[in-house]
């Protein structure tokens, strides 16, 4: 049997990830009480969105799409390219397979609204805006109506319930560092594999053009532990701490896992440092120092922006180069750009952009 299909299925962004995220939002809804804030129709839309939020993902992130002027990037005008693509594919499947048959027109429109908005909300370039709104939402705590159950739900406007769905899917999507260690590590291995495969492609492109391999995509110089710690500290922990204000049960579970997993990643990073100090066969040589990760502090939504990885590495969301410190120990290392093969004008634009592994 041909195994060519293996190369067509990304190691991380595949059906397993979709199923896993679906199970996560189901847990938030049914175990941690989020369903009390939502209507059954909202929960239905959220579930469909969770399962399909990365459908047809090519394993090459938004930055790659934009910088290479891919067909998808052109189709979606460089904006939330992969999220828009997945939302479109889900919409087509829902229509052609009549997955929501039986809903009234009004309910169908509401369900589609939840599906599309939640999927687009997984674009990491919107993360910081989501955090800002979530903080204000939690401060207002509109769900704290007396009586619980329907009273909680009735206290929320339809727009607020839609926002809750956005937050739940986004949270589930980046939840890997907040899972029990075995799962956390397995998902991390898979997502790093996907990043490195992208890096290999970048290497091919860049080698031809005399450019260095992009940070975080370079399997010889990227620190998995460093990426994981940075992603957890900078993105996942603040998000879960906010979501736990809405769903307090997450405090003793996901947030606790984040802390214990961080200790393991720190140990792993120390081991990496020790290995680097005493190079062995297969370890990176001098000049291939392992880097942490690259994060953008502001989460730009510029059309040319890219997204953070769903599970662990970094992104560029604005045009930058060079290296600068950000919030303590992490380093923002902005890679040189992918320069497309065609067109000098196009080349000039891309040289100011930065490819990232997501
Ligand atoms: Zn995802």
Describe the structure.
By secondary structure, the chain is mainly alpha-helical. The chain has a single domain (about 15-275), classed as Orthogonal Bundle (Catalytic domain of cyclic nucleotide phosphodiesterase 4b2b). The chain is about 55% helix and about 5% strand. It is built from 13 helices and two strands, in the order H-H-H-H-H-H-H-H-H-H-H-H-E-E-H. The protein has helices spanning about 15-30, 40-50, 60-65, 70-75, 80-95, 105-120, 125-140, 150-155, 160-175, 180-210, 225-245, 255-275, 345-350; strands spanning about 320-325, 330-335. The chain has a two-stranded antiparallel sheet. Helix 1 (about 15-30) runs antiparallel to helix 2 (about 40-50) and helix 6 packs across helix 9. It is globular and about 60 Å long. It starts with 14 loop residues before the first helix and ends in an 8-residue tail after the last helix. The structure holds zinc ion. Zinc ion (ZN) binds near residues 17, 53, 54, 122 and 173.
Task: Give a brief outline of the structure.
The chain is mainly alpha-helical and about 350 residues long.
């Amino acid at each position: 049997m041909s195994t060519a299909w293996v190369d067509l299925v990304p190691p991380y962004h595949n059906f397993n990830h979709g199923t896993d995220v679906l199970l996560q939002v189901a847990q938030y809804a049914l175990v941690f009480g989020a369903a009390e804030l939502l209507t059954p129709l909202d929960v239905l839309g959220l579930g469909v969105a969770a399962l399909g939020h990365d459908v047809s993902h090519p394993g090459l992130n938004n930055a790659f799409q934009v910088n290479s002027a891919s067909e998808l990037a052109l189709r979606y005008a460089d904006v939330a390219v992969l999220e828009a693509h997945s939302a479109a594919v889900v919409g087509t499947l829902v229509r052609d397979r009549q997955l929501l048959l039986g809903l009234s027109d009004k309910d169908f429109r509401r369900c589609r609204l939840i599906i599309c908005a939640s999927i687009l909300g997984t674009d990491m370039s919107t993360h910081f805006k989501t955090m800002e709104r979530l903080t204000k939402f939690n401060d207002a705590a509109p769900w704290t109506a007396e009586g619980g159950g329907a009273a909680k739900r009735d206290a929320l406007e339809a727009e607020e319930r839609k926002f809750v769905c956005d937050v739940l899917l986004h949270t589930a999507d980046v939840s890997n560092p907040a899972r029990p260690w075995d799962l956390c590590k397995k998902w991390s291995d898979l997502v790093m594999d996907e990043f490195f495969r992208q890096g290999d492609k970048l290497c091919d492109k860049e080698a031809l053009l005399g450019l260095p391999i992009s940070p975080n995509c370079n399997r010889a110089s990227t620190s998995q532990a460093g990426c994981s710690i940075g992603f957890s500290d900078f993105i996942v922990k603040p998000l879960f701490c906010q979501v736990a204000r809405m769903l307090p049960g997450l405090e003793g579970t996901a947030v606790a896992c984040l802390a214990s997993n961080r200790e393991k990643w720190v140990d792993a990073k120390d081991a990496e440092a020790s290995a680097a100090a005493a190079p062995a066969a297969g370890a990176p040589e001098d000049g291939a120092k392992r880097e942490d990760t690259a994060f953008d502090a502001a989460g730009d939504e510029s059309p040319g922006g890219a997204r953070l990885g769903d599970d662990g590495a970094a992104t560029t969301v604005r045009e930058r180069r060079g290296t600068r410190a950000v919030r303590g120990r992490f380093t923002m290392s902005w890679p040189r750009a992918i320069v497309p093969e065609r067109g000098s004008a196009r080349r000039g634009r891309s040289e100011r952009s930065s490819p990232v592994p997501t």
